[in-house]
Design a protein that fits this description.
single chain; 3-stranded parallel beta sheet; two-stranded parallel sheet; 16 helices; 7 strands; DNA2/NAM7_AAA_11
Amino acid sequence: MVRALGLLKSIKSSLHTTVVANEGLKLVLKDSKVPGSIVGCLPQLRTECTNTLKSLPMEFSVPINKYALMNFCLENACLIFCTASTSSKLHDVAGTRPLELLVIDEAAQLKECESAIPLQLSGLRHAILVGDERQLPAMVQSKIAASADFGRSLFGRLAKLGHKKHLLNVQYRMHPSISLFPKREFYSNQVVDGPNVKERSYERFSRKNMVEVAVVSGIVASLYKEFIGTKKKVSIGVISPYKAQVYEIQDILRKYTETCDTGFSVSVRSVDGFQGGEEDVIIISTVRCIAFWVLGNASTLIASDTVWKKLVLDAKKRNCFYNADEDSNLAQAITAALLELDQLHSLLNIDSMLFKNAIWKVCFTDDFRTP
């Protein structure tokens, strides 16, 4: 149907751009062709359009209006893909056949009130919620709303009430050395590693993809140049599943994100941070980064007596724990950052890396008591 509509529009456009005299009109109605002429192409278009229309069922007429065509498709569809919020528009389509099965993906990141939108569709007999309540919950900006459990998902509520779940117990993304801790800590070792992450080629780690950063920068620069020329408002969303890549892209696009020109906007966020967002242009940087680094103060994390403590102790047990001050480059970078931030108190501590790495040490004390 879409193809037939496009062919009809092509014929209309060709007729508008060509002075069709009596002889030209005869060519349109016949199968004769004139090489190199626009009119000569019309018979081929006519034949192709006619054959396409003949292939359609005869019991309905082809809509010629965009919205009529959209409604026609929805009325006769047995499978519809949409977001939870836009599913509300299905109520306005007259003649839509009842949908019996509803599948909600990322259900654990969907607020319970949002889940109620597609659940209102008439005729539903079954609903399947696909998600993981142990991962990130729904995004809620208001602290008051969060305290009132507004960010709770229907999936999370049902899981908390003890409803039976079917666990998808194979993971295909993380290297086994990375998945080891979350599998044990959050899934009681019920999740196994897929065959792809066990392959030797999966051991090559990369933190970020600077080539993709450069490409993103080039695309945004081109869009900005177009905006300057046309002054047509445009909003751009740049998404990456990895924080390191997000920060690199944010840094290189800072001049665009900090611009006061409201006609051109750029938003760089992670996949989870962009949840539910809408922009005119979307750029996705996939990276394929499988390295995993956690930076922090080990003493503070251990003292927190939370899952962070377990993570640090697990890293030490598997010889995956590294002190930054044991690397001269990292130690120098940290010292320079503390000096720049005017945090001298951290450097003057006798246990700081500045003193640990110094050859000569002079310590003063107010305690003059003899041993």
